[in-house]
Automatic annotation (TrEMBL):
UniProt entry keywords in alphabetical sequence: Decarboxylase, Flavoprotein, FMN, Ligase, Lyase, Magnesium, Metal-binding, Multifunctional enzyme
Keyword ATP-binding in record: no
Molecular function per GO: phosphopantothenate--cysteine ligase activity
Name the UniProt record assigns to this protein: Coenzyme A biosynthesis bifunctional protein CoaBC
Positions with a binding annotation for CTP: D98, K108, P124, D125, I126, I127, F142, K156, K160
Entire-sequence positions represented here: 183 to 398 of 398
Organism placement in taxonomy: Bacteria, Pseudomonadati, Pseudomonadota, Gammaproteobacteria, Oceanospirillales
Reactions this protein catalyses: N-[(R)-4-phosphopantothenoyl]-L-cysteine + H(+) = (R)-4'-phosphopantetheine + CO2; (R)-4'-phosphopantothenate + L-cysteine + CTP = N-[(R)-4-phosphopantothenoyl]-L-cysteine + CMP + diphosphate + H(+)
Biochemical pathway: Cofactor biosynthesis; coenzyme A biosynthesis; CoA from (R)-pantothenate: step 3/5; Cofactor biosynthesis; coenzyme A biosynthesis; CoA from (R)-pantothenate: step 2/5
Organism superkingdom: Bacteria
Length: 216
């Protein structure tokens, strides 16, 4: 309790949905569970919490201010607005689509030739933009990898200028995407801590404690 009293946390969660036409989109398998568990743990630790959520089927935790978004560009805009207004800690758990269709068709695309082509353009890197902001909060990222987990995570910590990165190996079936359990290795410049397999609620509580200690 009270570990984060007076602090404003912003958390991104869930997938993003990138429209192809009015009835079709690109997305991924993120459930949003880890981000929602972190929002709940942060609120229970006394923080004011803004949860920027992509399309997910989850209830909003108590005392959490939820902003629903759809596309990566919407999540980017909502995140930068929250940072601009002032926050102490930013945690990016969202599985942001790396690419979006270059154009969204105004009308449903008709079935035609045997082969059609979809051109994609890179989405903005939300957490990298937050970490470079003049009003930079303590910035925590996530990395879901299937191989060389620690090496990739350390690379991301540096390249995105993060204060901390939480990494999980999503090659197994009992952790990560859509599971109720998770195991994390949390890395920061000069140290790391392993949070062994536990419920996402328990993992969230431990990660919030670690963040509260390191950002103070
Ligand atoms: O580069 P990668 O997608 O693996 O990085 C994962 C971390 O970066 C996560 O914290 C994720 O929420 C964040 N991210 C982001 N905006 C993107 C891509 C990833 O905030 N466009």
């Amino acid at each position: 309790y009270d570990l984060l009293t007076g602090k404003h946390l912003v958390i991104t969660a869930g997938p993003t949905r990138e429209p192809i036409d009015p009835v079709r989109y690109l997305t991924n398998k993120s459930s949003g569970k880890m981000g929602f568990a972190l929002a709940q743990a942060a609120a229970e630790a006394g923080a004011r919490v803004t949860l920027i959520a992509g399309p997910v089927a989850l209830d909003t935790p108590n005392r959490v201010n939820r902003i629903d978004v759809v596309r990566a560009e919407d999540m980017h805009e909502a995140s930068l607005k929250a940072v601009e207004e002032g926050c102490d800690i930013f945690i990016a758990t969202a599985a942001v689509a790396d690419y979006r269709p270059t154009v969204t068709a105004d009308h449903k695309i008709k079935k035609s030739t045997e082969e059609i082509h979809l051109t994609l353009v890179k989405n903005p890197d939300i957490i990298a933009a937050v970490a470079c902001h003049a009003k930079r909060p303590f910035t925590v990222g996530f990395a879901a990898e299937t191989q060389d987990v620690i090496e990739y995570a350390q690379g991301k910590l540096k390249s995105k200028k993060l204060d901390m990165i939480a990494t999980n190996d999503v090659s197994g079936t009992n952790v990560g995407f859509n599971s109720d359990n998770n195991a994390l290795t949390v890395i920061w410049p000069g140290g790391h801590k392993v949070l062994p397999l536990a419920s996402k609620a328990q993992i969230a509580k431990q990660l919030i404690e670690l963040i509260a200690i390191r950002q103070s």
